[in-house]
Design goal:
Blueprint: E1 7-12, E2 18-25, E3 30-35, E4 37-44, E5 49-56, H1 62-84, H2 87-103
Antiparallel strand pairs: 1-2, 2-3, 4-5
Helix pairs in contact: 1-2
């Protein structure tokens, strides 16, 4: 069986707030790339709930965070459709993502 790793290294300040983050996924060609935010979700099938790790550096600009959220919402719609084949729900998620973009002032 083949294995692979995705690694996120987080450099913390004295108050344990992320200052810098780097990630690597060598199978994907990412050796050590800096990032300002990461959201990781995993499914706990025993508890039937999603577990999350949400991290961002203290210098992550708010306008970039808004764009990050918008792009995550868009990708959730695509992933939902691939996973369930429910086009109508995926379309609703896409519409919600666009409404978010307008309400958060990243799109007019």
């Amino acid at each position: 069986m083949k294995k692979t790793k995705i690694v996120i290294d987080v450099e913390l300040d004295d108050n344990h707030v992320p200052e810098k983050m780097f990630w690597k996924a060598e199978d994907g060609g990412i050796k050590r790339q800096e990032t300002k935010a990461a959201m990781i979700s995993v499914w706990d099938s025993k508890a039937m709930e999603a577990l999350r790790i949400d991290l961002w550096t203290k210098d992550m600009p708010v306008d970039e965070m808004k764009r990050f959220f918008h792009q995550i919402l868009v990708s959730i719609g695509h992933t939902y459709e691939r996973a369930t084949s429910e086009e109508d729900v995926a379309q609703w998620i896409a519409e919600m993502a666009e409404e978010f973009a307008v309400k958060s002032a990243i799109k007019m």
